[in-house]
Each structure stands twice: as structure tokens, then as C-alpha cells.
Amino acid sequence: MRLSVVASLLSLVALVGLVGCSGSQKIAPTGPKDAYEKGMAEYQEEDYDRAIRYFRSVFNYGRGNEWAPEAQLQLAIAQRQKNKHLVAANEFQRFTQLYRNHTKVPLAEFEQAKSYYLRSPEYQLDQTDTRKAIDLFQLFIDRHPEHSRVPEAREMVNELRAKLAHKQYDAARLYERREMWRAATESYRRVFDQYPETPWADNALLGALRSYVRYADRSVRDKQAERYQKALDQYAQLRQLFPESALLERAEPLQAEAQRKLERVREREQSQSIAQEGPSR
Prior knowledge:
The protein is an all-alpha fold. Among the domains are: 32-96, Alpha Horseshoe (Serine Threonine Protein Phosphatase 5, Tetratricopeptide repeat), CATH 1.25.40.10; 165-271, Serine Threonine Protein Phosphatase 5, Tetratricopeptide repeat, CATH 1.25.40.10. Helix content is 78%, strand content 0%. The protein is built from twelve helices and no strands. Helix 2 (32-44) packs parallel to helix 4 (68-81), helix 3 runs antiparallel to helix 4 and helix 9 runs antiparallel to helix 10. The model is unreliable at 1-24 (pLDDT under 50).
């Protein structure tokens, strides 16, 4: 009885061992070409882990072998397929460092930037990766202005810059809601000054107009004229640069209010000036 139990246990252990061995399937390519081709085959089958193992095995035959550059690129792409975008970015960068004279260096630079683009989060979150992507895309565009991927790179830069503008605009709105008028005016202006080509530019000018009017309302008398005038400057810029903007309809009452209050302040200042000159005569 005991012998039969022991035999059964040994058979079970052997079976588990066989299953484990068949699952691991050691990678043993016959050379760099074989390793690369098997890696591509696994990649096509969407087995990215095994593809990565094959691509890495190409380097066992030296980083300078014929198949190593393509293996390095495919390794980075496979990491991206696993949503490991930071790892992919590092692998693309490694390609540019190891194979500086290779014809695909511009492509690797573009893909490195795109890896950070894919890591860029919603606008409310930290935008470190967004800024990194913009910097790398701009470097790619400057170095390779005739490359076929430049239009795509520009589109992604515009998208990322709009995200940064949105984040800055929300910060300005928060200052405005808290009635922190100076901070609001400065933040709205920063949106326009830094991101004038984004969809948030006309919104920023309207916000600056609105905030300057309220800032002037709450300012000491000596500063009111200056700040109402700045409100009018925002309106003038909005009308000049965005003559078709739907926001002009909302801006016009604010412009009229600022103009009316500015005239009242100037009349008051003129009256005070006349009153001060009277006794001296």
C-alpha cells in the first residue's frame, strides 16, 4: 500500500516537472539572425515577453552584429506593446546612443518622444512627462525638419501644449473663484502669453478682462485707472486676434463696464486736481 502511494506521488512530481519544463521552453537560437527572426515571429503572435527574450538574445552575439540594431528597435517596440512606456523610452534612447550613425536614429528619436507622449496623464495631474515629450519632439523636429514623421510630431506637440494651457487656465479660474485678483490676472495672461496658439487663448483673454475689472473695483484709487485700462487692453487684444470668437459677446458688457468706470475715475481725478489747484490761485 505504501509503495503504491509513494509511486503515485513520484509520478505526480514528475508530471509537474514536465509541465514546468514545457512551459518555460528555453530560448536557444542558433545565431543572431535566428534569434531576431524568432523574436519577430513571437511578436507577430503577440507573445511580447518571449519576443523580448529573443531580441535580447541577439545581443549575446555582440552589440555590433548585423541584427543587433533592428533587435534593439524591436525590443523597444515590444516593451511599448506591454504598456511599459518608460522602459520603451529608455530602449529607444539606447538605440540612439549605440547606433548613432544608423539611418533609423531619427525614427528612434521620434519614438522616444512618443513614449513620453503616451505617458502624458490627464491635464489635472503632474505634467512632467508632457513637458518631456514636448522637449523631445521639438528636438526631433529641429534636427530632422524634412522627416516624414514631423507633421505627426507637430500635431502631438499641439495637443500636449493645449493640455498645459488647460491646466494653467484651471489654476487661473481657481484664483478668480477665490477672489485673488492679482494672481488671477497674471495666471490668465500667462496662459495667453505661453500658449497663444491653443484653444484656451481666447478664454484666457476673457478671463484676464473679467479679473482686471474686479481687480480694479477693489483697488486703491490711485491704481484703479491703470487696471481698468488693462482690462480694456485685454478686450482690444481679444477682438483683434480672435474676431470670430464666440466669447466676444460675453466680453462686450465687461468692456463697456470697464470703459464707464475708467471715465468715472478720470473725472474724479480731474475734479480733485482742479480742487487742489483752486486755493493756490
